């Protein structure tokens, strides 16, 4: 727990969120690659100490679950918190799967079949769902922590095929210090949360069932490669939030996934929180039970998805530029 900035070698940026930047770093004394999140915060020493204490708890806990990213340490420097965690070398699921089915990247010398996006097979989806629920159940049972920010950018995967959660609200003090700027589009908030914020009631305690909603929505997004309330239809944040509260919940496409899979997701997305499935129900469901002990080549799938993602980044733009003149 003694990481300081001098021990770190900065590598490339991994991504950016509402609160700051995540960079890949090498911890030189141990030769371990880490992901370092920089969070800008103006805080006094007492607050900082409290945050460190809370993060220490997280440090001990994260080693006990294979579904939670490990926490390596944190330090403060020039009104920023630097938070070092396990580096997940395939990144977050949103960036790994945000493609449309049969999308093709024309990579010279690679056959088309290899460079066609075939989506997320049900077995991979089941393992992902199972890992998410097990991670959340661990947080709840062992730490009495509710995640509160379940979404595909906070579901990380590595080339060994392990799926782990990050960015859970373990540090109450850190949470309180962060300005909530994330009221824009792409809400993963459950309908009851949106309602209560809108009506300005004293907030009912955040419960696990709100996280279950976010799991359901995230699983659909991972399956179809885009946020389930598309921005073309719901053109602003209000329209989107209204749809979450008033419309029927989105469903997993039943032409690509089994009835069992669709049923599991539907049970996550029951709009009434008291009727929504709990973690025990979800784990006992056939969708997850079928995954127990099943051989799934997660590593193989991750490798294939990364090849597609990286090819898309390198060659995808070129193909768009070539077709641009016809659009004028
Ligand atoms: P928000 O700010 O709303 O939480 P976010 O989750 O995308 O959104 P960050 O948590 O700052 O924002 O993360 C930015 C990006 O960095 C993520 O989308 C993810 O792709 C990448 N990332 C975060 N943590 C890791 C990690 N441990 N290993 C690898 N990549 C990571
Ligand atoms: Mg995040």
UniProtKB/TrEMBL annotation:
Q: Which GO terms describe its biological process?
A: cellular hyperosmotic response; p38MAPK cascade
Keyword annotations of the record: ATP-binding, Kinase, Nucleotide-binding, Phosphoprotein, Serine/threonine-protein kinase, Transferase
Into which family does the record put it? Belongs to the protein kinase superfamily. STE Ser/Thr protein kinase family. MAP kinase kinase subfamily.
Top-tier EC class: transferase
> Any idea which GO molecular function terms this record carries?
ATP binding; MAP kinase kinase activity; protein serine/threonine kinase activity
Name all Protein kinase domain ranges: 8-288
Stated name of the protein: mitogen-activated protein kinase kinase
Entry GO CC: cytoplasm; protein-containing complex
> Which Enzyme Commission number(s) are on file for it?
2.7.12.2
Where along this sequence does the record place binding of ATP? 37
């Amino acid at each position: 727990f003694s990481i300081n900035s001098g021990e770190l070698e900065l590598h490339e940026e991994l991504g950016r969120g509402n609160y700051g930047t995540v960079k890949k770093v090498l911890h030189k004394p141990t030769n371990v690659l880490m992901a370092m999140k920089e969070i800008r915060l103006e805080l006094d020493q007492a607050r900082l100490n409290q945050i460190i204490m809370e993060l220490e708890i997280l440090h001990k806990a994260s080693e006990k679950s294979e579904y939670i990213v490990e926490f390596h340490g944190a330090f403060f420097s020039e009104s920023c918190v630097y938070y070092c965690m396990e580096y997940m070398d395939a990144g977050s699921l949103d960036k790994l799967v945000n493609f449309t089915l049969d999308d093709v990247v024309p990579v010279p010398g690679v056959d088309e079949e290899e460079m066609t996006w075939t989506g997320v097979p049900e077995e991979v989806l089941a393992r992902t769902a199972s890992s998410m629920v097990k991670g959340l159940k661990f947080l709840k049972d062992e730490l009495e922590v509710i995640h509160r920010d379940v979404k595909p950018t906070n579901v990380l995967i590595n080339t060994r095929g392990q799926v782990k959660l990050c960015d859970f609200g373990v540090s109450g003090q850190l949470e309180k210090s962060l300005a909530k700027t994330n009221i824009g589009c792409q809400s993963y908030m459950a309908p009851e949360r949106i309602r209560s914020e809108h009506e300005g009631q004293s907030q009912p305690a955040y419960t696990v069932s709100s996280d279950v909603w976010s799991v359901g929505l995230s699983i659909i997004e991972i399956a179809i490669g885009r946020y389930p309330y598309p921005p073309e239809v719901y053109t602003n944040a209000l329209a989107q939030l209204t749809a979450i509260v008033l419309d029927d919940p989105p469903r997993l496409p039943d032409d690509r996934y089994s009835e069992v899979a669709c049923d599991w997701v539907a049970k996550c997305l029951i709009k009434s929180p008291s009727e929504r499935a709990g973690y025990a129900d979800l784990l006992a469901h056939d969708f997850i039970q079928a995954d127990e002990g099943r051989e799934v080549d997660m590593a193989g799938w991750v490798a294939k998805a990364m090849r597609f993602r990286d090819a898309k980044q390198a060659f995808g733009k070129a193909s768009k530029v070539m077709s641009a003149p016809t659009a004028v």
